[in-house]
Write a structure and sequence with these properties.
Strand order of the largest sheet: 2-1-3-4
Radius of gyration: 20 Å
Largest sheet: 4 strands, mixed
Helix content: 40-55%
Number of helices: 6
Number of strands: 4
Structural class: alpha+beta
Low-confidence stretches: none
Shape: elongated
Oligomer: single chain
């Protein structure tokens, strides 16, 4: 069964999520075997399957498996970076974020974009199990903590 062209981004995102998780544990080739034979699923494979199920994308399992193998066979060292912003990124910001991440990681980057209005502004980057939170929500939280620590135990001169 051939994948719908509209599903190609989803297929690559799922395959890259599996690769990134497998690489983190040193078992990306083993995860491909698990994916194809479904004998012993790692937590990461189960998580991706759960995400696919939640998005009603289980019909893409075969295509994800093929994409996974192609990426591994190509020796692709691309790092998946999840970018969360309060509004969708435009092409200019997307290019800047990707260029900065590629420079910092010294590897090609595959961006997964998420929109979460609750962060109010700024950006959150997640890659290789690390999270960099430069959101307005986080900054306000830090200010609140700093101010509450400053006024604890201070006597009022009135």
């Amino acid at each position: 069964m051939s994948a719908n062209p509209n599903d190609q981004d989803k297929i690559e995102q799922y395959a890259r999520a599996l690769i990134e998780a497998g690489r983190a544990e040193g078992r990306s080739d083993a995860d491909l075997v698990q994916w194809r034979h479904a004998e012993k699923f790692s937590p990461e494979v189960l998580e991706v399957l759960g995400s696919m199920r939640q998005s009603d994308d289980l019909h893409l399992v075969d295509a994800v498996s093929k994409e996974y193998k192609e990426i591994l066979d190509a020796g692709d060292d691309t790092v998946m970076v999840t970018v969360t912003t309060s509004v969708p990124m435009d092409d200019d910001l997307r290019a800047k974020v990707k260029a900065k991440a590629e420079k910092d990681l010294e590897s090609p980057v595959y961006l997964v974009e998420r929109v979460d209005p609750s962060i109010l502004g700024g950006i959150i980057l997640e890659q290789r199990g690390k999270r960099y939170d430069a959101s307005v929500r986080a900054q306000l939280s830090n200010i609140r903590k700093s101010l509450s620590g400053t006024f604890i135990g201070v006597e009022n001169d009135e």
